[in-house]
Amino acid sequence: MPSRVPPGQFETKAFPVLQSGRIHDELNAHNWDLEVYGEIEKPQKWNFEQLQALPHSNVQVDIHCVTTWSKLDTKWRGILFTDLVKIIKPTKKAKFVVMECEGGHTTSLPLEEMLKPNVMIADAYDGQPLEAKHGGPVRALVPHKYFYKSAKWLRKLKFVEKDEPGFWEVRGYSNTADPWQEERYS
């Protein structure tokens, strides 16, 4: 059976807390919202309660940090990205998704990468509401990429025609971020 831990990674049982800047613990279910805009037919702005009313799914996935740790069998709850796009209906011009976070952090991925299995807008981890230290109340989950592509403290999703490399990418990190190819840096 092939390893579930990519090359250059080690398995941890812990869930390390890493970020640039501070943890945005001022965000909560009462003051958080998510705006979805850009090259889509139905722009949206949901508060936390409205987001909870959308169809939710549970996934169990392995996650891999660019700093070399991997955590296996993590359990998440949220809205699958494939379900989200059924609501907002991207136009033919939409080729990339820019994830905009509290504090100005951004990252982006091709829309086709966001439509892969288990990609979600997550609001729970391991059966509990997502803690601020792990990006709560809501973060992106893109388990087939290094974890800096799973944007914490998510506030906006912008659908665009041309890529907009984000915070880590303009500082030398890989824009493709495939852990199985060790695409850590550009």
Would you kindly provide a written description of the structure presented here, covering whatever features stand out?
It is a single chain. It contains three helices and eleven strands; from the N terminus they run E-E-E-H-E-E-H-E-E-H-E-E-E-E. With 186 residues, it is mostly beta strands. It has a single domain (24-181), classed as Oxidoreductase, molybdopterin-binding domain (Sulfite Oxidase, Chain A, domain 2). The chain starts with 9 loop residues before the first strand and ends in a 26-residue tail after the last strand. The protein is 9% helix and 33% strand. The longest helix is centred in the middle third of the chain and has 8 residues, at 81-88. The mean pLDDT is 95. The strands form two sheets. Strands 1, 4, 5, 8, 9 and 10 form a six-stranded mixed β-sheet that branches. A five-stranded mixed β-sheet has the order 3-2-11-6-7.
The secondary-structure class comes to mainly beta
Mean pLDDT rating: 95
- Helix content range of the residues, please? under 10%
Low-confidence stretches: none
Overall 3D form: globular
Which second-level CATH architecture applies? Alpha-Beta Complex
Number of domains: 1
What is the tally of helical segments? 3
N-to-C order of helices and strands: EEEHEEHEEHEEEE
Q: What's the CATH class label?
A: Alpha Beta
The CATH topology annotation reads as Sulfite Oxidase, Chain A, domain 2
CATH superfamily, please? Answer: Oxidoreductase, molybdopterin-binding domain
What distance separates the N and C termini?
Answer: 31 Å
- Strands, count: 11
**Largest beta sheet, briefly?**
6 strands, mixed
CA-based gyration radius: 15 Å
